[in-house]
């Protein structure tokens, strides 16, 4: 056989050197010659190719074809790495053509799948996503067919240029083959994401993460971020157990990253900074988890006016007692990540926060506190200096955690204090913000501050009514809160005006509902202001009427707006029907001087 000659040992040595140049030496290439080692590797591979051609006459045709295919594959990857995609594609296509008749045999299947993977990547880099999908799905189908029909650990492509004594163990072969297939699934997950096949993308991402742990083929930081991202998909589907599982696994695997010391400690500062940022990003995913779980529970529990429905609460508690035992065990089996030692750490992490809807204040508070801890962790990295937008988003999430916790609080005074905490965290941020550069965030904060003051005003009125009448201190407080709510709603509405301070004839879709709600709430707030001065009261009623009328007129001119503010429109019409008569009665009482 041709392999017996001395040229073969030389060819194997060149092949090995080429792979070392590509994988190891290329990392040390200077910026001025970024592909120096890759080009040297290419030259060696071309030499081996020529040696093979010279040996073809006396060699076994199939064996030589497979070896040529290995070289075409290596040259294909090499050209792709140096951004010569057309040449890369040619070599990879030649590789698959040579292997086509033998693609299901143990000495070819792994190479064929890896060639298909690389063609998939190459086409996705050209933004030809459908073509990429075809190659990758073909690789997936081949893996499944091989495992069904043969299943023995196939040869690794590098073994075609090794002596018998250098050949890999079955265990190592299996590990490398499974790693190639994991890559297929990883790229398919990205393709499906790109094609907006979100559910399929999530399924493939989950399988990829699971396999990476199984075969120890992962970088902890990258793995953790992918798992945290997947948790947000499950969150959007209200799958809280799966979401929590992904986040717990992300936190556990991420903690491994800190245990890997860098070779160059003096260059470690940037690495440490990156690690801190990734850790804060995972913390933000945990915040979203806690917030979504609390908000979803509120939706289940609230009545028509946004208060706790005690009957629903009782029903859900009873239902939960029945379901609890069966469900948790069943669903956990479907998603468990990794080996037993990782599982134990993940389970310990999961036990720190619930994945079932909180049904009372105590349960809600436990989830709130976990979320609040992650807020502090995220804010440590995302500080106002340097990360304005991120920092504000985290503070807004913190405020939203207080808002949803307040729903579960039965005591109105304590509920009021929670809203006050929101004011205390949002007002300083708003005061320091330049609306010229941060218009959208500025509007969000104006609206949220207005709503929070509005909520506090309502609570103070309710507290006063429970005490059978409002004393002068409470009246002062109610008026003050109402005025502050009006101030922020007006600031929000003013931000919609053009440079000449004219309010738009027609509002954009994204601000239509907030603007209408602001107008409606201001109308209501003016009617809530308490004064013993009847003339002032009449003025407030007139202002209130004007705001209600604006909403009705706007909806008449723009019928599309009706669906956005149906409830507010109905109530405005009702008030416009009632207010003039009330104002008339007040005028009559005041006599001819008004």
Summary tags:
elongated, mainly alpha, TPR-like_helical_dom_sf, Serine Threonine Protein Phosphatase 5, Tetratricopeptide repeat, 21 helices, 594 residues, cytoplasm, single chain
Give the secondary structure arrangement, pairings included:
Layout: H1 6-23, H2 36-55, H3 61-81, H4 85-99, H5 109-125, H6 129-149, H7 170-194, H8 198-214, H9 220-236, H10 240-257, H11 268-301, H12 310-335, H13 340-350, H14 361-381, H15 388-408, H16 412-431, H17 439-466, H18 472-494, H19 509-528, H20 534-557, H21 566-590
Task: Please explain how this structure is put together.
With about 600 residues, this protein is mainly α. Among the domains are: about 160 residues, Tetratricopeptide repeat domain (Serine Threonine Protein Phosphatase 5, Tetratricopeptide repeat); about 140 residues, no CATH class; about 90 residues. Helices cover about 75% and strands about 0% of the residues. It is built from 21 helices and no strands. The longest helix is centred in the middle third of the chain and has 34 residues. The radius of gyration is 33 Å and the shape is elongated.
- Gap between N and C termini, in Å? 116 Å
Could you say which structural class the secondary elements and strand pairing correspond to? mainly alpha
- Going by CATH, the homologous superfamily of the domain at 56-218 would be Tetratricopeptide repeat domain
CATH topology of the domain at 56-218: Serine Threonine Protein Phosphatase 5, Tetratricopeptide repeat
* Sequence stretches where pLDDT stays below 50 over 5 or more residues: 260-266
Give the proportion of residues in helices: over 70%
Sheet with most strands: none
Order of helices and strands: HHHHHHHHHHHHHHHHHHHHH
Mean pLDDT: 90
* DSSP summary, beta strand count: 0
Q: What is the CATH architecture descriptor of the domain at 56-218?
A: Alpha Horseshoe
Q: What is the global morphology?
A: elongated
The number of helical segments is 21
- Please state the CA-atom Rg, rounded to the nearest Å: 33 Å
CATH level 1 name of the domain at 56-218: Mainly Alpha
How much of the sequence lies in strands comes to: under 5%
């Amino acid at each position: 056989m041709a392999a017996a000659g001395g040229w073969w040992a030389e060819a194997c040595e060149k092949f090995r050197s080429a792979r070392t140049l590509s994988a190891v030496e290329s990392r040390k290439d200077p910026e001025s010659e970024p592909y120096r080692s890759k080009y040297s590797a290419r030259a060696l591979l071309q030499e081996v190719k020529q040696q093979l051609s010279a040996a073809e006459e006396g060699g076994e045709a199939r064996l030589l074809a497979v070896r040529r295919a290995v070289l075409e594959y290596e040259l294909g990857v090499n050209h792709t790495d140096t951004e010569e995609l057309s040449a890369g594609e040619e070599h990879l296509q030649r590789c698959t053509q040579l292997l086509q008749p033998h693609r299901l045999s143990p000495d070819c299947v792994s190479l064929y799948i890896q060639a298909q993977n690389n063609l998939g990547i190459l086409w996705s880099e050209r933004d030809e996503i459908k073509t990429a999908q075809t190659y990758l799905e073909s690789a997936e189908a081949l893996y499944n067919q091989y495992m069904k029909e043969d299943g023995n650990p196939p040869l690794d492509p590098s073994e075609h240029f090794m002596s018998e004594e250098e050949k890999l163990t079955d265990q190592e072969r299996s590990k490398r083959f499974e790693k190639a297939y994991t890559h297929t699934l990883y790229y398919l997950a990205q393709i499906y994401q790109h094609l907006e096949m979100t559910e399929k993308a999530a399924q493939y991402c989950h399988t990829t993460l699971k396999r990476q742990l199984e075969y120890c083929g992962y970088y902890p930081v990258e793995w953790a971020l992918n798992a945290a991202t997947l948790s947000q998909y499950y969150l959007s589907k209200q799958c809280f157990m799966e979401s929590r599982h992904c986040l717990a696994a992300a936190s556990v695997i991420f903690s491994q990253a800190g245990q890997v010391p860098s070779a160059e400690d003096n260059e470690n500062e940037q690495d440490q900074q990156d690690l801190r940022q990734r850790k804060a990003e995972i913390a933000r995913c945990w915040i979203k988890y806690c917030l979504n779980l609390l908000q979803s529970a509120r939706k289940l529990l609230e009545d028509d006016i946004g208060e706790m429905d005690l009957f629903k609460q009782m029903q859900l508690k009873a239902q939960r007692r029945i379901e609890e035992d069966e469900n948790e065990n069943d669903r956990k089996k479907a998603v468990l990540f990794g080996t037993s030692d990782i599982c134990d750490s993940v389970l310990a992490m999961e036990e720190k926060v619930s994945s079932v809807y909180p049904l009372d204040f105590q349960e809600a508070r436990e989830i709130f506190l976990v979320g609040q801890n992650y807020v502090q962790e995220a804010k440590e990295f995302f500080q106002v200096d340097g990360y304005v937008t991120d920092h504000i988003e985290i503070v807004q999430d913190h405020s939203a955690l207080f808002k949803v916790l307040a729903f579960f609080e039965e005591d109105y005074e304590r509920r009021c204090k929670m809203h006050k905490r929101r004011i205390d965290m949002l007002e300083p941020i708003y005061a320091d913000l330049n609306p010229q550069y941060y218009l959208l965030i500025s509007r969000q904060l104006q609206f949220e501050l207005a709503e929070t003051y509005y909520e506090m005003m309502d609570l103070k009125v309710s507290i006063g009514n429970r005490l059978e009448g409002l004393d002068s201190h409470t009246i002062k407080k109610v008026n003050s809160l109402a005025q502050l709510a009006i101030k922020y709603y007006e600031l929000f509405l003013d931000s919609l005006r053009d440079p000449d301070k004219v309010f738009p004839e027609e509002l954009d879709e994204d601000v239509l509902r907030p603007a209408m709600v602001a107008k409606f709430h201001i109308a209501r707030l003016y009617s809530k202001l308490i004064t013993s001065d009847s003339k002032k009261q009449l003025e407030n009623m007139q202002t209130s009427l004007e705001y209600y009328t604006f909403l009705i007129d706007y909806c008449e001119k723009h019928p599309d707006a009706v669906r956005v503010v149906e409830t507010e429109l109905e109530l405005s019409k009702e008030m416009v029907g009632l207010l003039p008569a009330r104002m008339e009665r007040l005028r009559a009482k005041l006599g001819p001087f008004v």
